[in-house]
Design a protein that fits this description.
Layout: E1 2-8, H1 15-23, E2 30-37, H2 43-53, E3 57-62, H3 67-77, E4 82-85, E5 91-92, H4 96-107, E6 111-119, E7 126-128, E8 135-138, H5 139-146, E9 167-170, H6 171-176, H7 189-200, E10 203-216, H8 230-245, H9 254-273, H10 279-290, H11 293-299, H12 310-320, H13 324-331
Parallel strand pairs: 1-2, 1-4, 2-3, 6-10
Antiparallel strand pairs: 4-9, 5-10, 6-7, 6-9, 8-10
Helix pairs in contact: 8-9, 9-10, 9-11
Keywords: Glycosyltransferase, Transferase
GO molecular function, one term: glycosyltransferase activity
Domain Glycosyltransferase 2-like: 3-174
Length: 332
């Protein structure tokens, strides 16, 4: 009934924990698709060993192409009526897929989303919940409550449908809407996929307060690490979103698209600051970001939201007016 797609790349410390949590599901009619994305460590052999332990596990070995590519390969071999995605350095509650399956069948929706538990490197785990009400959303409610923050909120935060890993999707919905992951977007791929899923969905159900997925803050994630080329990827993502959402009739997404690339500019500039590179190298990287055409386009006719605190307004103003040195002094 349910296909669970797990991309695998350099996660030998966490892989067994993840797979065990899936095989212990109270919903037993599942298949677990481990997609080895050309991992250079022991992960390929670990995946193969798991197929000997449980016939519900499938393994696909492929050349490295990134998370989006791995998830897409998983989609091509998935046999389930419903599809879920799990990152191989996370794990899930043993009741997760039984609960999601029960709701998606009962409510006849395109997808169901739960909350998740954030597990930091230090300190206690805590529930992450969305700033929308729980329950059933039809198309009218989606347009009224989700579209205004589908891509990016005015507060410069992600929209409510971001995490694909806490969702269960009707495979027919994904197929009919031609929903796959953008393989040119190697990082933050959930952002673009969830925006399209939220736009095309006729209905979904939100299990508010139920933290069924466990998201671990493991070292080396995109939010904490500088990655060469990340800014170029985010510009591509924004271009792809813009090419679609600027041509829809139901809602004006222009401001959200501007907020989207401004958010990633702040994100990338923060990564540059924490990269350990020399001041000269950091300055050159800041110039590249601040002077990019994609960012300049976002600042055209852009008014700072009233909800922004003063510090954020100053930070973004320095970015807008390409104050490279002042930005370094402010944030450093």
């Amino acid at each position: 009934m349910v296909s669970i797609i797990v991309p695998v790349y350099k996660v030998e410390k966490y892989l067994n924990r993840c797979v065990k949590s899936l095989l212990q599901q109270t919903l037993t009619d599942i298949e677990v698709i481990l997609v080895d994305d050309g991992s250079p460590d022991r992960c390929p052999a670990m995946c193969d060993r798991w197929t000997l332990k449980d016939k519900r596990i499938k393994v696909v070995h492929k050349e490295n192409g990134g998370l989006s590519s791995a998830r897409n390969v998983g989609l091509t071999v998935a046999q389930g009526e419903y599809v879920g995605f799990v990152d191989s350095d996370d794990d899930v509650e043993k009741t997760m897929y039984e609960r999601l399956y029960t709701i998606i069948e009962q409510e006849s929706v395109d997808f169901v989303i739960s909350d998740y538990i954030r597990v930091p490197k230090e300190g206690e785990a805590y529930l992450k919940t969305l700033d929308i009400q729980g329950g059933h959303y039809n198309k009218v409610m989606i347009k009224e409550h989700i579209f205004p923050k589908l891509i990016m909120k005015e507060s410069l935060e992600y929209g409510p449908l971001l995490s694909v890993c806490s969702c269960l999707y009707r495979k027919e919905f994904l197929t009919n809407c031609n929903l796959t992951f953008d393989e040119q977007v190697r990082w933050s791929e959930d952002n673009i996929f969830s925006a399209f899923a939220g736009y095309f969905a006729n209905s979904f159900y939100y299990l508010k307060g139920e933290g069924l997925y466990h998201y671990y803050s493991n070292p080396g994630t995109i939010t904490t690490s500088y990655r060469p080329g990340a800014w170029d990827v985010y510009c591509i993502m924004n271009d792809h979103l813009r090419s679609f959402f600027m041509n829809v009739q139901e809602y004006d997404f222009d401001k959200q698209l501007k907020l989207h690339i401004i958010f990633y500019a702040c994100n990338c500039l923060g990564q540059v600051l924490a990269s350990g590179k020399s001041k000269k190298e950091q300055g050159n990287l800041r110039k590249k970001i601040m002077r990019s055409d994609t960012l300049k386009r976002a600042f055209e006719d852009f008014k700072f939201p009233d909800c922004w605190p003063l510090g954020l307004k100053v930070q973004v103003a320095f970015i807008k007016y390409e104050c490279v040195m002042l930005y370094g002094m402010l944030m450093g």
